[in-house]
Amino acid sequence: METQAFQKIYTRIEQITKATITLHATGVGNEEIALVHGRLAQVVKIIGDEVTLQVFGGTEGIPNNAEVIFFGRSANLKVGDELAGRFFNAYGEPIDGGPEVEGEEVEIGGPTVNPVRRLQPSEFIPTGIAGIDLNNALVTGQKIPFFADPDQPYNQVMSMVALRAQADKIILGGMGLTNDDYLFYKNVFDNAGALDRIVSFVNTTENPSVERLLVPDMCLSAAEHFAVEKNQKVLVLLTDMTLFADALSIVSNRMDQIPSKDSMPGSLYSDLAKIYEKAVQFPEGGSITIVAVTTLSGGDITHAIPDNTGYITEGQLFLRNDTDVSKVIVDPFRSLSRLKQLVIGKKTREDHPQVMNAAIRLFADASNAKTKLENGFDLTDYDERTLDFARDYSEKLLAIDVNIEVDEMLDTAWELFDKHFKRSEVSVKKDLVDKYWPNNPDSE
Amino acid sequence: MSKKDNITKGKITGIIANLVVVEADGPVQQNEICYILQEDSRLMSEVIKVMGKSAYIQAFESTRGLKVGDQVEFAGHMLEVNLGPGILSRNYDGLQNDLDRMEGLFLRRGAQTDALDHEKKWEYKPLASEGDKVSAGDWLGEVTENWLPHKIMVPFKLEGKYTIKSLAGEGQYTVDDTIAVLTDEDEREIEVTMVQQWPVKIPIKKYREKPRPFKLLETGIRTIDTLNPIGEGGTGFIPGPFGSGKTVLQHALSKQAEADMIIMAACGERANEVVEIFTEFPELEDPRTGRKLMERTTIIANTSNMPVAAREASVYTAMTIAEYYRAMGMKILLLADSTSRWAQALREMSNRMEELPGPDAYPMDLTAIISSFYSRAGYVYLNNGETGSITFIGTVSPAGGNLKEPVTEATKKAARCFYALSQDRADSKRYPAVDPIDSYSKYLEYPELEDYLKKNIDEKWPSLIQLMKDALLRGREASEQINILGDDGVPVDYHITFWKSELMDFVVLQQDAFDPIDAQTSIERQKYMLEKVIDIYHMDFTFEHFEEVNEYFKRLIDELRQMNYSEFQSDKFHQFEKELEKIIEERKA
Q1: Which of A181, A260, B291, B496 could cross-link to A177 by cystine, CB 3.0-4.6 Å?
Q2: Which positions in chain A touch B275 (Cβ < 8 Å)?
Q3: What's the CATH class of domain B461-587?
Q4: To 10 degrees, the CA torsion angle through A385, A388, A394, A396?
């Protein structure tokens, strides 16, 4: 960011901590940005003429006579069609060697959509992954995270969702991505030839952690541009929100705030809600859908980060290793999409809700049968058949490498019902059974 | 109402997030409203602490770009709402701005809109006469709002006795027209319009007496009405982890409860949930009146992405509107989702003011704040002998689903009904997931409510409720024994006890909020079904083997549930009932 004339420059810093500096300055606005020793900083506290700034790049090596230049505005992003296909850092500066983007400057972290101007989400987003489309259908304007352990392939699944979802723009916000994962995304998008509809804001583990705090706002400002100005369907991917929350706790700690649960700042709920609530369906057709990743430690969802997230988002998706079929599946029990009932059976085939419930119920029976088996009890014929069904169901539908249309998922489910069960055992409404049960000569 | 002659002004001397420190040049009052002047807007704020000349104010809007030295104007009064005809069916934000009248897709900072329509003419008719002696809260006249008789009252702020000097006759008036002139004891004249202001943090107490709740508030939800009924004018709360169905239960209450008016305070929750109400309520019908639900509903929306400080204001705004309508003799149900978000807003502020924290960093006076808020609900006898009520039900979102956290504990001390949502019930899709054993209603212990139930439902009703509670508890104990000792390690009787409680659970407690018939159950029907279930509970059945118990009771449950899904007393209903009798005969000892 270049300096301009008439900017106020100070050269005397009173106090330096690991993340903040304090100096005497006048005429400074709250949340105004500044350059401190060439690093971007933001005003977080003003008491009289004492101004405290949070330095995103960290304060290592900043001398107390460093130059502090105030910009007279808050952080912003230049938005325009040229964003498409580009990679930026957390400050919105290109990191792909390309030129600066020309466009309108917008403030990041801008105002809230008036709730009465929102539309109820009602458009189905197919991803081809049956564990999502069949059991946890996503809807435009929805916000939903993957709750995943760090060793699970959530970045792979996210990239698949991104490429298959029929979105006009995909905006990737990488927070604390390892360089390897960053290159993975870059390659996947490149190879798919989808670069022209993707915009990325990336903070890798090589960058200072506090910088991450800017990433979601950058992504969502870009998303709002495409959704509002161009009426496009925008999908925003945020990975990993746990690292974002960790950065929040670092800053609040440096500012001597009293921590609440799990050392997180007391404002964690509001901070996360401000981001996730940017997901919206606009009346003119544009929409912002957010799919995020929240990594868990040891699967603990009562930790403050997943817990607050769960209260904000509209459901959550869990991945699980199914050792019976040696594949990663979308866990049908713990995953939930709260908005699915707005589209399933309405935007998809009529039998969708019933087939979904029946298959999950049978899968639950299989898991009971498995418990019986482990406890050394005898299995009934029905138990055996549920186990066979569960293997097929995992392999052909729940596995994340499945990529088929919803109708095909439903047909597959009916075939599996037919293969393993009698009509009366699946307990689906009779008229649907009559209509969709495969017409095999040997079926009952 | 007098205005302060000299407006206190001030200058900003410090900014920490939405806490702003202002040096004032005159008197400042705790909780006074003030405005931070910006080029194109006035940002509303509230004084939350005064030290010397410094006023600590919380801004209800983003403080981005504010500078030291910016001008501040004090309003001379606390946060007030405008009360008058036209509040019903509106969608307000936490500060009573009419959201529908705001321009643009986004909420512009500092944008303010009128809470009431100043153009609309109301068909007015007087209720008092000239020469009458009146005091605050007395009814002067009436307009019809949607279909409710909206009383025009002597402004609550007037103290002492007044005489009606003149009164407008029947006719059409706007809310700003003078409809009465009152004189006080010193012959000073006061003009009264249909609008008045009232500070939200102060309860409106223009009533004669507030008895303990003694009437049942019908909600149509069986696990509440039958098992743990809430009294009209009572208080209750619904804690539950995410995904346990808090919001669905609140929406069900708002759709079905028997009340003249529903006020929903969406406090710090998801915007899409409010959008659901905006979309559905204008379409859905109130089963009792046949009118659209929106006609009896007012929504106060301060969703999680709207300014945090206004969250606190939003619940008070909602309560004050409720008190205003209660003073007209109406029956109000106030719902707040979720009070935890409000407590979190208090926590953020207390933290910024560097107050010593209480448990989990919440302010020390959290319990007192919550208690005094809940105490504003209640059933009242107005000065003219009429009655009105506010029943308040709040949800709580306990961190990590742990019911020992400060907000849940503080609320437990204040609210009289406790509807605990259980993760286990939600996981096994037993909705509504209200835990029948942990939940309670203190009103069942009130002799006056017991008398009401005996008189209005049945002499035996309270004893049936107790019987059902005992049966559910015994069922749970039996199921624990079965789990420990194994299916065939216990006598068959244990299985019967367990399945009798399961039958109550499936037939009475579980209810399909999305089925048009099952969603709403009248008290008459609840009585019919409970008696049926209790009859079965008293029956002796003979079984050889535990596997038969399970299978047999599933059949009974299925017939009873089919009855739940059928129109009450319809042919279909009786058909299932007959089937049921047949199945009962098979095994009855």
Answers
A1: A181
A2: 115, 118-120
A3: mainly alpha
A4: -100
